[in-house]
Amino acid sequence: MSETLHLLVVDDEMGMRLSVERALRHFSVHLPDLQDDIAFRVSQAESGEAALALIDADPPDLILLDYKLPGMSGLDVLTALQERKLDLLVVMITAYASLETAVQATKIGAFDFLAKPFTPEELRATVQKITRHCMLQREASKLAEERRQIRFEFLSVLAHELKSPLAAVQGNLFILRDHLAGETIQDYDHLVNRSIIRLEGMKKLIFDLLDLTRIESGQKKRTLADLDLCAAARLSIETHRALAEEKHVSISFEGPTSLRMKADAGELEMILNNLISNAVKYNKDGGTVTVALLELGPSVSIAVRDTGIGMTQAEVSRLFGEFTRIKNKRTMNILGSGLGLSILKRVSHLYGGQVHVQSEPDQGSTFTVTLQKEPSSAPSDGAPSLTVR
Amino acid sequence: MTTKKKILIVEDDLDQLDHLAVILKADGYEVISAQGQAEGEEAMLATIPDLAILDLMMENMDSGFVLCHQIKQLYPETPVILLTAVRSETGIDFSAKSKAASSWTKADVLLDKPIRPEQLRVEVRRLMA
């Protein structure tokens, strides 16, 4: 990519203005980290008044501003620029660079100084420095804007997901109030049960959201200790036994008797519970769940296989988005916040881990999580930011 | 005998889909239910609805707008009600500010969820009069 920045030189000496123009005519700044090459278009003004008129007509990106000008001084121009709130950087050119003037000029917005007289090389070095700063600053504000946009979208979807169960329950109450579904109280059993399910779902969403926010913001306390993954898996299986029996689902365990790793007990529980409860919830009546642990050199893998409703390729590809719940008639009675897999992914990320899914509609799914046995205690970077403030 | 008026409801929340259906059936309309944008697209090709009620945010954040546009292309005479749950929280203003915007979304009414049965009846009756 290549771009041209507009540089304005304000000096009452024509020789100075021309030498700046000459020095920058075939000059360009290479910014490897932004993959950008910046060239310059130089315009000139011989006084502060002329400069401001030009700035209003054609705002520059960079200004080289002489301190001592006839009429308005360099400082007057800086003050006038402050009111305009433009996205530009100013370098003061001055023959008498006292500390006092430097401090004064910096206070009202000058970014750097260039002492007169200067060589073309000195000029180019300064221009290179401010160009780099200018472009990095713009890149940063672009990223901040993107983050704001992502957060806004997240909040819109969140609002939607929180209001849907409310709307559903309220709708059920309207039907009850107006006796629209029949004359006997049994005619309303379904509506009451659905209301309970929706409120449970809403509660789960709020709890999951709090979990996710804590993980994201690094507020959650982590205590890494030497733990037995097999024992944790067996415990999680026991926790889900009752839910599984309701659906006549059997859970079995495959793996070594013990598998040591460094982990936070709560996080490990979160991972295992997420995987196993999904495998039970999305299973068929009479199905099976297999929890298989495997040691793979420096990592461990946790594979949870179910014989459940499975997913199509299209559904799998949407699976890891926030609030993605595969909605169809088979999943409507299953509680879920749409955040479980986001949590799973983020917690796994803390262990340098990954989540893979393999699925076949009507046959079942296998979720495999790989974790480092010796994770670094600092959360790794790179997870998309989702913090809600 | 007069044939029943057909109302197409597209809503990805099955409970809310059921409510709308219960209320409208009780008022004597024939209801065609579609769960989500994809089903909605199929349903509108299979029958000509006398009225369509569309949820805004389904598979995509703008599913309702897209469906509305499609319905108006196919059946310019069919009135459309758009339902949204996200207007107040997010401050998103869906109301068309200009003629151009309203000709693009083309919904006849935009209602906030949850919708009260009385309100639904009034709007449906008004649009099909």
From TrEMBL, chain A:
Show the ranges annotated as biased composition (Polar residues).
Answer: 370-379
Q: Where is this region: Disordered?
A: 370-389
Which Enzyme Commission numbers does its entry carry? 2.7.13.3
Modified residues annotated as 4-aspartylphosphate in this record: 66
What catalytic activity does the UniProt entry give for this protein?
ATP + protein L-histidine = ADP + protein N-phospho-L-histidine
Q: GO molecular-function annotation terms? A: phosphorelay sensor kinase activity
Histidine kinase domain residues: 157-375
Ordered alphabetically, the record's keywords are: Kinase, Phosphoprotein, Transferase
Q: Which PROSITE patterns match?
A: HIS_KIN, RESPONSE_REGULATORY
InterPro entries attached here? CheY-like_superfamily, HATPase_C_sf, HATPase_dom, His_kinase_dom, HisK_dim/P_dom, HisK_dim/P_sf, Sig_transdc_His_kin-like_C, Sig_transdc_resp-reg_receiver
**Pfam families xref list:** HATPase_c (PF02518), HisKA (PF00512), Response_reg (PF00072)
User: Where's the Response regulatory domain?
Assistant: 6-131
The protein's name: histidine kinase
Q: Which organism is it from?
A: Candidatus Geothrix skivensis
Automatic annotation (TrEMBL), chain B:
Q: Which residues cross the membrane?
A: none
Q: Does the keyword Phosphoprotein apply?
A: yes
Q: Check the record and name the PROSITE patterns matching this protein.
A: RESPONSE_REGULATORY (PS50110)
UniProtKB keywords: Phosphoprotein, Two-component regulatory system
Residues forming coiled coils = none
Q: Name one GO biological process term.
A: phosphorelay signal transduction system
Residue span, Response regulatory domain: 6-128
PANTHER family referenced in this protein's UniProt entry, alphabetically: PROTEIN PILG, STRESS RESPONSE REGULATOR PROTEIN 1
Name of the protein in its database record: Response regulator
The organism of origin for this protein: Candidatus Geothrix skivensis
Lineage of origin:
Bacteria, Pseudomonadati, Acidobacteriota, Holophagae, Holophagales
